[in-house]
Every structure is written in C-alpha cells, then in structure tokens.
Amino acid sequence: MESSEHFVTFFGLTLLYSQLAYGLDFSNFPTLEEFLKEPMVNDDRIVGGQEAFIDDYPHQVSFVVNNTYFCGGSIISENWILTAAHCSQNVDPSTVVLRGGSSWRKNGTIIPIEKVIAHPEYDNPAFDKDVAVMKTKEPIQFSDTMQPIGLPSIDRAMRGGTEVSVSGWGRTEQGAASIPERLMDVRIPVVSYPECFLSYFSVLTRNMWCGGNFFLGGQGTCQGDSGGSAIQDGMAVGIVSFGRGCGQSFAPSVFANIAAPPIRNFIKEHTDL
Questions:
Q1: 128, 130, 185, 225: which is the annotated catalytic residue?
Q2: Which residues form the Peptidase S1 domain (predicted)?
Q3: Rounded percentage of the chain residues whose pLDDT exceeds 70
Q4: Where does the chain show beta strands of DSSP type E?
Q5: pLDDT band at 160 (very low <50, low <70, confident <90, very high)
Q6: Is the CATH number of domain 58-148+262-270 2.40.10.10?
Q7: Are 258 and 104 in contact (CB under 8 A)?
Q8: What is the CATH number of domain 149-259?
Q9: Rounded Cα gap, residues 218 and 212, in angstroms
Q10: Whole-angstrom Cα distance, residue 16 to residue 30?
Q11: Nearest-angstrom CA–CA distance, 71 and 121
Q12: Once rounded to an integer, what is the mean pLDDT over residues 79-92?
C-alpha cells in the first residue's frame, strides 16, 4: 500500500500548490498537516457485517415515513431522536411510524412523534449538514433495550485509522431487493480526510467524515442505514448520510460529523443536549 500512500501525498501537494498559485479559496481542501500527518487507512482487512442484538445498541430505532421509505435513528434523550435531514425534510410527524427496543425491524415499541426538525441549511451545499431531530409525544420509557446514546463535545476530532461501530437494517449488499428483518452491525475504520477528499472532492465539507476500507472496500453502510449513528467511545459521532454504492473501493461511506459546529449547535439549540 506504500505506493498508494505516496500517490495520496503527491496529489495532495499538487492540490495545495494549485490553491496557492491561483489564489483559490478552497476551505474544504485538506491542509498540508492533514496530508502529511493524518494516518492513511491502508490495512488489508475487509470488515464484514453480522447479525446484532438491540441490547448492544439500545439507542437504535427505525422508522418508516408514509410507508414509502425506511431510515434509522438514535435515541439521545427521553424526548428526542437524532436522525438524518434527508430522511426527515418536510415530513409530517403523523406519517412517521418509529419503533425501538427490538432487534427485529417490524417488532418493538412504537414511539409516536410530535415534531420533526431538519437542519434549515441542509443540502446547501449539496448533502451538507445532514442532521435532524424528532421530538416524541411522550417521554420514552427506558429499559435494557431502549437507552439514550451520548453526544460528543463540539469540534471533537475524528482520526483516520480509528474504528467506529454502525448498526441498522440497511441492505446487506448493493442492489439487494430488500432490507433485512434482523438488526446488523459492522465495525469500520475512519478514513483520513485527505483520502475521503479524493473520493468526494466536489461535495465533501468539514461537516462530514468518511468510514470504510478505502482501498479494498467491503461491508459498510447501504440504503436503509441512513439516519443511524456511528458509535465511538460510547458516543454517537456520525450520522449515516450518503455514499457512492455500498462498500465500494475508493468510495467510503460518508457521515454527518456530529461534532462539527453547525451540526452540534443545531442539536443543542433544539434539544438542549
């Protein structure tokens, strides 16, 4: 993988030279320090998915909107659910059927929703600030299978090479005809910002980070996992947002960065968390 690492470094220096030479203001470009010091995720492991138990992810919920599409979310307090804006924009709360407390997506406790609030600047620019919160009609009754997940402090860094856990009922392979009945989970490495930028240079912002095996691909997030959380150090650090395919080489999954100021401040403003 040494040649790949050299390529990333060379390409990064080229981009930085172009920025200086032509006076371009590319605020989302990786910095020189990131190119030279950020660890590159170049191990030869393919991290596969497996069946999971809700007891290990008691924050995990699922919801259907108008019986048309499926997303995930996370309990963050007795009154609030965290999810993705692209799952929740312009959604009437009465059309949401949200369930928690079960490893099986069609089982569990139905949690009625009173209010759905997507980030007002979602998708400006494209895919950016992909975060929303849902307020429950009644406080959630916590149990062994329904518990809140903590949130990171503002500007907490995501370091390339560290690992996160992601759970959900998304498709287990690209092009699959249906989503699984049973909760699945996967452990994936955080992709360094320079590598992520190589894959998504036209849309990546500082409010995002990537996860997956950058060079080899393998299991990652897929359709149906959207809105669920990536967990690290007992906290929800990312929201499943978008990607190019599912577990493809050079196309890692992209997460909304919960610690990024525009996202963390939005959550704080509406939930006081």
A1: 130
A2: 46-272
A3: 80
A4: 50-51, 60-65, 69-75, 80-83, 96-100, 109-110, 113-118, 132-136, 163-168, 184-191, 208-211, 229-232, 235-242, 253-257
A5: very high
A6: yes
A7: no
A8: 2.40.10.10
A9: 8
A10: 8
A11: 20
A12: 96
253 a catalytic residue: no
130 carries an active-site annotation: yes
Q: Which amino acid is at 83?
A: T
For residue 242, what is the DSSP state?
Answer: E
Q: How high is the mean pLDDT of the chain?
A: 86
58-148+262-270 and 149-259: identical CATH topology: yes
| Catalytic residue from among 226, 229, 241, 253 | 226
Active site annotation includes 56: no
pLDDT of residue 45: 28
Lowest mean pLDDT among 23-27, 82-86, 132-136, 245-249: 23-27
- CB distance 79 to 124 below 8 Å: no
Q: Which of 59, 62, 77, 86 is catalytic?
A: 86
Question: Regarding predicted confidence, which is higher, 42 or 16?
Answer: 16
Higher pLDDT, 201 or 31: 201
Question: What is the reported pLDDT for 26?
Answer: 60
